[in-house]
Amino acid sequence: MRLVDGGAFSSYAHKEIGPGDELEVMTPAGRFTLPPAPGRYAAIVGGSGITPVLSIVSTLLAREPRASFCLIRSDRTAASTMFLEEVADLKDRYPDRLQLVTVLSREEQQAGLPSGRLDRERLTALLPALLPVERVDGWFLCGPYGLVGGAERALRGLGVERSRVHQEIFHVDAGAETVAAAPAPAHSTVTARLDGRGGSWPVEDGESLLDTVLRNRPDAPYACKGGVCGTCRAFLVSGEVRMDRNFALETEETDAGYVLACQSHPVTERVELDFDR
Ligand code: FES
């Protein structure tokens, strides 16, 4: 794990966790996946965003001979690139079905693309030159917010349907795109159901619904508290909330009534959440 400046968990992991320690981990949410199927797929990843994509590509190419993949990587320097050898091995194993494009933002490359950040403008020009954008069955975007947001806007501009784009953001700088605050009621109460047990608690001034629940139920699920991972997803049974930001839930999920508890603040005096749905 990389140490993120000011990162709560990465600082803890680097200082406190050592060989022999046991960690209890949650099962994967299973929302950023690609069940092997014939077709043409592509990924745009930045830094450690390669981690989930590497297993997606390896599994796909091993299990489905009629699938191909274009992997576009953005890293600062060759020395900081993760899984360099593993990706090179994959390219050797599937030279015809894996297209690999590496862009280094802070280092000149001997061959290939000029250095610089992969932003929306650059991707808009680059993608149609690399592959038939309209014939890609699934896009996988993974990395920091700036890269994923730029890639998503580039794809939208190129006419790619939203349903073909899957994304996972692992780091958002504070202050990125928050929603304007709606007036909050003077007093509000959240009722939450979690692991079959319910409870009702008053929401304290300014805190998120997740924090209210956590004060009373420390087993409430969360990981990033930044609107990125989706671990705190809950079904809004009744009442209304406003979310500061949402980089985790798809439109279908918010339309179906799901919210991120870590980003939710009550707009009505009573709000009911169900973490079990
Ligand atoms: S805890 Fe990660 S989105 Fe809420």
How is this structure best described in words?
The chain is an alpha/beta fold and 277 residues long. The chain has two domains: 30-171, 3-Layer(aba) Sandwich (Rossmann fold); 189-274, Ubiquitin-like (UB roll). The protein is 25% helix and 25% strand. It is built from seven helices and twelve strands. It has helices at 8-16, 50-63, 84-93, 120-130, 145-157, 209-216, 251-255; strands at residues 39-46, 67-75, 98-104, 138-144, 165-171, 189-194, 197-202, 233-238, 241-243, 258-260, 264-266, 270-274. It has a five-stranded parallel beta sheet, sandwiched between helices. A five-stranded mixed beta sheet has the order 7-6-12-8-10. Strands 9-11 form a two-stranded antiparallel sheet. Helix 3 links the parallel strand 2 and strand 3. Helix 4 crosses helix 5 (145-157). The longest helix is centred in the N-terminal third of the chain and has 14 residues, at 50-63. The model has no long low-confidence stretch (mean pLDDT 90). It binds FE2/S2 (inorganic) cluster. FE2/S2 (inorganic) cluster is lined by residues 222-232, 248, 260, 262. GO terms for molecular function: 2 iron, 2 sulfur cluster binding; flavin adenine dinucleotide binding; metal ion binding; oxidoreductase activity. It comes from Streptomyces haneummycinicus. This is Phenylacetate-CoA oxygenase/reductase subunit PaaK. Pfam families: Fer2, NAD_binding_1.
So, the CATH homologous superfamily of the largest domain?
Nucleotide-binding domain of ferredoxin-NADP reductase (FNR) module
Structure classification: alpha/beta
Main beta sheet = 5 strands, parallel
CATH domain class name of the largest domain: Alpha Beta
CATH topology of the largest domain: Rossmann fold
How many angstroms does the end-to-end distance come to? 31 Å
CATH architecture designation of the largest domain: 3-Layer(aba) Sandwich
The run of helices and strands is HEHEHEHEHEEEHEEHEEE
Poorly predicted regions are none
The number of domains: 2
Give the strand tally.
12
Mean of pLDDT: 90
Bound compounds, please? FE2/S2 (inorganic) cluster
Q: Any idea what the radius of gyration is?
A: 21 Å
Strand proportion, as a percent range, falls in 25-35%
**Helical residue percent band:** 25-40%
Strand order of the largest sheet: 3-2-1-4-5
